[in-house]
Amino acid sequence: MTIFDPLMLQENVIATWEKQGADPSNCLLYWRRHQLLVRRSLPQPVILTNRQKPPYLPPLSDPQWLVECLRRSPVRLVRGDVNLEERSLRAWADACVRSNKTLYLRLPTAAQLPQRRTGTRWRFKRVCDWTLAALALGLLSPIFVGIAIAVTLTSPGPIFFAQWRVGERGKLFRILKFRTMMTDAEKYHHQVMAGQASDCLHKREDDPRITPLGRWLRRYSLDELPQLINVLRGEMSLVGPRPWALYDAVRIRPELRSRLNALPGITGAWQVEARSHLVDLDAVNDRDLEYLRNWSLVGDLRILLRTVPKVLSGFGAY
């Protein structure tokens, strides 16, 4: 099998990936300064000259081929078009993590990010994040053990659930949770959410994939405790906007996509003010943008203090 090497290709368009099977969209790959840009192809076929024509790339149905390509190439990071289908972004993210590369979404710049306006205060916030997350993990370790045993005894499958989410500057990361659903629940996601409105979050109170223990864990947000590990990794904050899943992120209107640059949080303004009572995509994004514009350390402290009674009461959780 011939291994694709980006160094052999032109600096402009280096490949047209013909994808087959269930996913009908095509990818255009561009090579720029040790970055691989992955874009959704145009509806009309792209005509390339003989000088530009790249070698044929196998379909995405052979993910190992892509992993080997990335491993052997000088690519340092991959930037994916947010207009790609969720299936494509997830496949690229899986290939990147297996080849020790990083995948970012290509997003419009966001001037309202607080770390760009308040350097010293933002650095203090991040120090507090790491310190409090480490203390919380230590204090809550007996609860972690108890939940892990309960998940193992009540349903087959792994203890933790990992899912691709959009992080700071569009960097994709795997959010960690205690598993609250049946094994392979992701395979049935779109089938279960088929009746949801196109402009709403993919959430259902009567989701049939949730286990009995999972419903109890979700009610008191105990399934989200492993996200403290994401905070220690630098992927999340204790307080911040909602970490968007790919199936929601790809449906955000273009004029609101700059919000995806923000560092996500375990809790935030939406979680304590509305949560599942407000599931309109635009409304949630508008609330997050308002939080970012008016960010302050005092505001984050207020959100943390409001989170405790909300969690204990099971506010908007399912």
In short:
By secondary structure, the protein is α/β, with parallel strands linked by helices. The protein is built from 12 helices and 9 strands. Strand 2 (27-32) and strand 3 form a beta hairpin.
What does this structure look like?
- The protein is α/β, with parallel strands linked by helices and 318 residues long.
- It folds into 2 domains: 6-106, no CATH class; 114-313, no CATH class.
- The chain has 12 helices and 9 strands.
- The chain has helices at 63-72, 86-98, 114-117, 119-139, 141-154, 189-192, 212-219, 227-232, 246-249, 269-273, 281-293, 297-313; strands spanning 13-17, 27-32, 35-40, 77-81, 102-106, 160-166, 172-178, 237-239, 265-267.
- The strands form 3 sheets. The chain has a 5-stranded mixed beta sheet, with helices on one face.
- Helix 1 (63-72) crosses helix 2 (86-98).
- The protein is globular and about 50 Å long.
**Biggest sheet descriptor:** 5 strands, mixed
> How large is the count of helical segments?
12
Order of helices and strands: EEEHEHEHHHEEHHHEHEHHH
| Residue-averaged pLDDT | 81
Set out the fold topology.
Blueprint: E1 13-17, E2 27-32, E3 35-40, H1 63-72, E4 77-81, H2 86-98, E5 102-106, H3 114-117, H4 119-139, H5 141-154, E6 160-166, E7 172-178, H6 189-192, H7 212-219, H8 227-232, E8 237-239, H9 246-249, E9 265-267, H10 269-273, H11 281-293, H12 297-313
Parallel strand pairs: 3-4, 4-5, 8-9
Antiparallel strand pairs: 1-2, 2-3, 6-7
Helix pairs in contact: 1-2
